[in-house]
Amino acid sequence: MSVTNTPKVVMLRVGERTFHTTAETLTERSDYFKAYFSGKWTIPTMEDGSIFIDADGEAFEHVLRYLRRGVFPLAFDAAKGHNYHLYTSILEEAIYFQCHHLVTWLKDQCYHKSVTWHTSIKEVEGETIAVTGDGNARAMSIVRAGTKGIKTYICPRGIYVHRGEPSKCGRQCRNAQAGEEIEYDVEHMPLWHILKTEHNFNSEWMTDDGAAFVKYANEKEMHGLL
């Protein structure tokens, strides 16, 4: 093991993982690394020039991604929901490396604000219905909601293809009407309720410079909670 001043490119050995980054990236959002690379002391390195950090390599990968761009580690799957175990692991490393905004986002469960759910109900009518969905839909169900009475035009000559379409009736039909009131039948059309639950992503909660998160963090800091 040797000692060195802060290199421009940093190779970190974290657990069994190796990461390449820069001191600037590490120090911008981490008070731990800001002190580590402050220049107040020399930094011990391994024989290959790497710096050994005793931490969880898998969780640190997500911490480093945050340090690079300020993007929070949203671990969400539409079918399975949030990965709370991963959040817990990352939180422990974020506390250790003193990444205050990342700690706030995880500890205050701001990931729930990053993904919101909306349930909609749409009423449609018809003997058969076609429904399409997209990747945002988590659940969809179709429920029979009753029937709807619909007035249907009856041709005075009883021609079935004219049923419901008075525009198809010509002079002979009008003569057959002979001034009588137009007759209507009542057809009962099935009604359906389509219930769809969808998720939406809120980018204002997904980065440390997102408007919603910045406002939230500033309010916490104002009240001495950050």
From TrEMBL:
PANTHER family: BTB/POZ DOMAIN-CONTAINING ADAPTER FOR CUL3-MEDIATED RHOA DEGRADATION PROTEIN FAMILY MEMBER, RE57120P. PROSITE patterns: BTB. This is BTB domain-containing protein. The lineage of its organism: Eukaryota, Fungi, Dikarya, Ascomycota, Pezizomycotina. Residues 8-76 form the BTB domain. It comes from the Eukaryota. Pfam families: BTB_2 (PF02214). CDD domains: BTB_POZ_KCTD-like. SUPFAM superfamilies: POZ domain. InterPro entries: BACURD1-3, BTB/POZ_dom, SKP1/BTB/POZ_sf, T1-type_BTB. One of its GO terms (biological process) is protein homooligomerization.
